[in-house]
Amino acid sequence: MTAVILTQREIRQLLPMAECIEQMAEVLTALTRDEATSPLRWGMRLPGGAILGMMPAALHSRRALGLKVVAVFPGNHGTPLDSHQGLVTLFDADTGAPRAILDATEVTAIRTAAVSAVATRILSRETADDLALLGAGTQAWTHLEAMLCVRPLRRVRVYSATAASREVFARRAGERFPVEVRAAGSAREAVEGASIVCTTTSAREPVLAGAWLSPGTHVNAVGACVPSARELDAEAVARARLYVDRCESVLAESGDFLLARAEGAVDDAHILGELGELLCGACEGRRSDDDITLFKSLGLGVEDVAVAHYLHGRALATGVGVQVELGGRRRGLD
Prior knowledge:
Layout: E1 2-6, H1 8-14, H2 17-32, E2 36-37, E3 42-45, E4 51-59, E5 64-72, E6 84-91, E7 98-103, H3 104-123, E8 130-134, H4 138-150, E9 155-159, H5 163-176, E10 180-183, H6 187-191, E11 196-199, E12 218-221, H7 234-239, E13 241-244, H8 247-253, H9 255-262, E14 271-274, H10 275-280, E15 293-296, H11 301-318, E16 322-325
Parallel strand pairs: 1-7, 8-9, 8-11, 9-10, 11-12, 12-15, 13-14, 13-15
Antiparallel strand pairs: 1-16, 2-4, 3-4, 4-5, 5-6, 6-7
Helix pairs in contact: 1-3, 2-3, 2-11, 3-4, 3-11
């Protein structure tokens, strides 16, 4: 059986951000309707703080079956390599034969920001136009692109703990995107007055304080994905109406929520719903222009499988990628 292999550059070519946003809205809705299976990820800790994780999933409505294997190496920060390395493999839903092998770095970069854009579209004020980015890495780039797809941004402020990183990001982003981008001298300077905040850092301690948030702000918290790490302090979580990609993931993995709960700032009832429930009208979102809303992103395997299924079809239709013969045959038949 023929399988397609796609590189980082080819995935970027075949998966426009605006299209991925619509794909993610569809898959989150499917998950809420029990048309998909997406178990909690499994991870093996490695020396130096690295993690090797596996994220299997099935999207029954599209007969899509797949697995992401991702190696998260924080030590890659400051090198040419992204911190997230790995593969997404798509399997034939009838035979189990491999159908596609994709670079996981690019899939993760695009689909994570696309899910944040879905959250921003349904939770932020329609007039939100001032973006704060905390972090200046891969996810900051894709989040800026994604936010521009759903809101009419007029100003962007970026803060990174490394001055050179935020200055380079501001200059290059200002050249690439049709919006003013400025490097901020502190996280507080970036956040105060912003109507959308995206935290995309590798921080283990809070980089966003609740006291800095203006009424009406929407926050996408993306970076911290283990119980011991957080980007938001307890006040930021407590002040916000909290929504998640999957409740069981947040209760098992989100330091932003779990540490705030341990400090007595919130309880489990503070989680108001999942994005899929919002999309289906099963829970209430923003109630007023003064509400602070928070989307806690952890990432789901079904998002990767949906992207793999879409890219497989696009690759076959366009001839992009390398096609190879994969799929083990029984001995004696070859």
